[in-house]
Design brief:
The chain is α+β, with helices and mostly antiparallel strands. Among the domains are: about 5-90, no CATH class; about 90-175, no CATH class. Helix content is about 55%, strand content about 15%. Strands 7-8-6-9-10 form a five-stranded mixed β-sheet, with helices on both faces. The longest helix is centred in the first third of the chain and has 26 residues, at about 55-80. The termini are far apart.
């Protein structure tokens, strides 16, 4: 049998006291520590010490064993009735809800990753707590190769105990692993009422033999199609989900009704509602009054939607499924690299970036993307990749990225050579690097002019003011700026070297 967690025992003991109170005319007290009392046991293991308060010594000797047996019998019955897999079950969560709403993570998985969890059913758990970091928790589950589905959920009352499994089934049908706030806002039009649950269930059941349609268009056109539908769900006045039997004229009728949306032919997908949604998003990407019959590229579109909605796990699965049918392999590989990077699978992210680069070896952005990724990993190859991106496109972003990397090794002459031709189009960061390069290579008047321009853009930037102070002393013999800015520089640990240079110059 499954062992009881301390959290479960904590939730059961008040219920045990309530259950035995009418049967025992004495007060019960339970202690975790060892005590000269009887043991409360489950499956042969002690879970607490039982103290009977109010019994005289002779009464305790005579009635104690019987009372203890009764307490243990009631406790074991409560375990059978009120727990699931050794955790507090839905009834115990219902008791908590009588005190007020409970917020936390609704999680479908084999076992919860935390001790403090309620089990609503085998494999379905609720982890209470507003301070949870769900994405970090789910990332750990994914890295351990433990399947899951999850959403943040607020139980307002006991009636929500029946709602939770339906919600999990809903976002599972649409392919979600993490149904976050952005996803909830996206699907807010569905309303998620009982009629919607039942309608979606019927539509999914008809997928092997019916056309599934997710359409947007005039109400008159949608009403015409609803007359042919076995099931029709109105999401908004202009949007509907339909299941229609195959008919010879169906596709031509659809094309004549000024409708947009997705079409899933009978028996085309293992997860039909997810595939229908993919076709709908594919159509929406193409513009007004476009109908898209589901195709493999639709998975690519939906994978990017999952990425936008913050579900890295669904994005990864869907984009991987799209690999063989995408029309945009480089974009897909870049999206996959981002997903794997977010999930901490750095080796897989690097594989995707290098695979994309192999497909387009003259694309500077791919060299840049790989360079940024490797730079975060501390790999020296990043410098040569930044350089290659710059060689292919010696423009601002790539030039600035290479210059920033070269600044770490103090190659200021090379930085000046790279950035000087781009002076008028540089970002603040690029202009600062050019100004610093001029300062370090003793082109001081030029440096002064550049730092003045930077101070106009950011009058309170301490680093810029620090270099201006150095230059005013070098070129003008003026100390007023240095005296004003030095105390502030010395407060910033990242600017202490600059402060030290300024102090040495002032005291020299």
């Amino acid at each position: 049998m499954t062992a009881l967690t301390p959290w479960t025992i904590e939730k059961l003991l008040p219920l045990l006291q309530e259950a035995v109170a009418p049967l025992l005319p004495v007060a019960l007290r339970f202690e975790r520590k060892e005590a000269a009392a009887g043991n409360l046991c489950f499956d042969g293991e002690k879970v607490a010490s039982v103290l009977f308060e109010g019994l005289l010594p002779e009464e305790k000797k005579r009635w104690g064993p019987c009372a203890l047996a009764l307490v243990n019998e009631v406790f074991n019955r409560l375990v059978r009735e009120k727990t699931v897999a050794g955790l507090p079950g839905p009834d115990l969560l219902g008791r908590e809800l009588e005190k007020g709403p409970q917020k936390g993570l609704l999680l479908k998985t084999k076992r919860p990753p935390a001790e403090k969890a309620f089990a609503l059913a085998p494999g379905l758990f609720f982890l209470p707590g507003e301070a949870l970091k769900p994405k970090e928790l789910l990332k750990g589950l994914w890295q351990e190769k433990r399947p899951f589905r999850a959403t943040y959920f607020v139980f307002e009352g006991r009636e929500d105990l029946a709602l939770a499994p339906k919600l999990v089934s809903f976002f599972e049908d649409f392919g979600f692993y993490w149904f976050g706030g952005r996803a909830a806002r996206y699907f807010s039009a569905l309303g998620l009422k009982e009629e919607i649950w039942q309608g979606l269930k019927k539509i999914k059941r008809l997928a092997p033999t019916h056309y599934l349609l997710w359409l947007k268009g005039p109400r008159a056109a949608l009403s015409c199609l609803k007359e042919r539908a076995r099931v029709g769900l109105s999401l908004t006045e202009e949007t509907a989900l339909l299941a229609i039997p195959p008919e010879d004229d169906l596709l031509s009728l659809l094309s004549s009704l000024s409708l947009a949306g997705g079409v899933l032919p009978p028996g085309q997908a293992k997860v039909p509602l997810k595939a229908l949604w993919a076709a709908f998003e594919h159509a929406r990407r193409l513009g007004e009054e476009v109908l898209v019959t589901f195709e493999p590229f639709s998975w690519h579109v939906l994978g990017d939607v999952f990425l936008d909605l913050g579900d890295w796990w669904a994005a990864r699965e869907t984009l991987e499924e799209a690999r063989g049918g995408t029309k945009q392999p480089i974009e897909l590989l870049n999206s996959l690299a981002l997903v794997y990077s977010e999930l901490g699978a750095n080796a897989r992210a690097e594989e995707c970036l290098r695979e994309a680069l192999a497909l387009a070896p003259q694309d500077p952005m791919l060299y840049y993307n790989l360079a940024v990724f490797l730079d975060r990993q501390g790999q020296k190859e990043a410098v040569s990749l930044f350089a290659r991106a710059y060689e292919l496109a010696p423009q601002g972003p790539f030039a600035e990225a290479l210059a920033a990397k070269l600044a770490l090794s103090g190659d200021w002459s090379r930085i000046k050579e790279i950035l000087a031709p781009l002076e008028e189009e540089l970002s603040f960061r690029g202009l600062f690097l050019l100004a610093r390069a001029c300062y370090e290579t003793q082109e001081l008047e030029k440096a002064l002019g550049l730092f003045k321009r930077l101070s106009e853009r950011a009058p309170k930037n301490l680093e810029v003011l620090g270099y201006l102070a150095l230059l005013y002393i070098h070129l003008r013999g003026e100390y007023s700026v240095a005296e004003a800015v030095l105390p502030e520089l010395e407060k910033e640990s990242s600017l202490r070297d600059l402060a030290q240079n300024l102090r040495v110059l002032m005291e020299g």
